[in-house]
catechol O-methyltransferase (Rotaria sordida), 213 residues
Amino acid sequence: MQSPYLSFMNYVLQNSRRGDIQNVIDTIDQYGWTKQWLMNIGDRKGKILDDAIRTRKPKTVLELGTFLGYSSLRMAGQLPNDASIISIDINSQTAEIAHTIHKHAGVENRIKIIIGSSENIIPQLNKIYHIDSFDFIFIDHDGSLYLSDFMLLEQYGLIKSGTMIVADNVIYPGAPNYLNYIRNNPNYITKMYESTIEYREDIRDGVEVSVRK
């Protein structure tokens, strides 16, 4: 495994308690604030994600953008053991670290990481993974893909009435096309929650929370 995030992985494994999800999350946050900036949702915006998960109580979750496994860990920590989380990421090296972190936290059997491009995997989710639709979708990969992947999810019927969609980084780096689409679409009720970017005090960001009518 060759990755610039090996030191991150070792730090988390050495400084957090095995099987304690919240302690692993807290250790990742500590690393992001004090050691090296990380592009996960972070502790502040993470509370917005937590609240959304608690509100929707999903059984089926899709995450676009696994990165180092932080947000899927947060979601798993809010959900019962029978909830299913599928996370898609194109980077096999960071996905491997994410799986190691998930295993350390004791949730590796509840989070399925699929490696590949979202545009190739989304059309296969129904046929290969037998998923009709998702209760909850978390979008946190490349901002330029937010809208095209969202429309692909719509096209394949993976968004249903009641599906909650949470999109991170909608102000910074930004996803203007996605925001324009979701805010002007009569099929959705949507609201932005302002914050700052992860592990920084000085850059404004926001999380868009939307629900399909």
Notes: The first strand starts at residue 60 and ends at 64. The radius of gyration is 16 Å. Strands lie at 60-64, 84-89, 111-115, 134-139, 159-167, 188-196, 204-212. The mean pLDDT is 96.
